[in-house]
Structure formats: structure tokens, C-alpha cells
């Protein structure tokens, strides 16, 4: 599945920030657009190619949201 998603996305990062700013970065990882912890699925429509550094930033934001939810 990983290779199919990377190929589909042209091996380019599809994160929101890269798309918004027009940044073109190589992608080597695949990420859930909507995290599974927030109701996302493994459906290919919910998966996208992402750059490793972008993935780390996105995961950090998602983890912060999860911690905030747990404190409620």
C-alpha cells in the first residue's frame, strides 16, 4: 500500500503546509490525513505521501491534540 500511495502522489509531499506554500519536497513516508485516533481509516483516500520532517511536525501536533483531549 505504501508504494502505491507514494507512486500515486508522485513521491512528493502532500502535507497541508507544503501544498499551501507551494513547497516541493520529496516524500518517503505515507501518513493518514485524518489520524486513526481521530476517526480516520486505512482507505487510500485517507492516505498521502509525506516528507519525513513534515511527518514529524504533523505527528507532534496530533499528539498534542490527543494529550489535550485526555486532560478533559
Keywords for this entry:
72 residues; mainly alpha; 3 helices; 2 strands; globular
List the helices and strands and how they pair.
Blueprint lengths: L1 H7 L7 H6 L7 E4 L14 E4 L1 H20 L1
Antiparallel strand pairs: 1-2
Quickly describe the structure.
The chain is mainly alpha-helical and 72 residues long. Helix content is 46%, strand content 11%.
Describe the structure.
It is a single chain. The protein has 3 helices and 2 strands. The chain has 72 residues and is mainly alpha-helical. It has a two-stranded antiparallel sheet.
Strand content: 5-15%
Spell the H/E element sequence: HHEEH
Unreliable spans: none
The main sheet comes to: 2 strands, antiparallel
Amino acid at each position: 500500500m505504501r508504494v502505491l500511495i507514494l507512486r500515486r502522489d508522485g513521491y512528493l509531499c502532500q502535507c497541508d503546509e507544503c501544498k499551501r506554500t507551494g513547497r516541493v519536497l520529496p516524500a518517503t513516508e505515507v501518513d493518514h490525513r485524518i489520524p486513526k485516533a481521530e476517526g480516520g481509516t486505512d482507505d487510500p483516500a485517507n492516505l498521502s505521501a509525506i516528507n519525513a520532517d513534515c511527518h514529524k511536525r504533523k505527528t507532534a501536533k496530533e499528539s498534542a491534540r490527543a494529550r489535550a483531549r485526555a486532560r478533559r
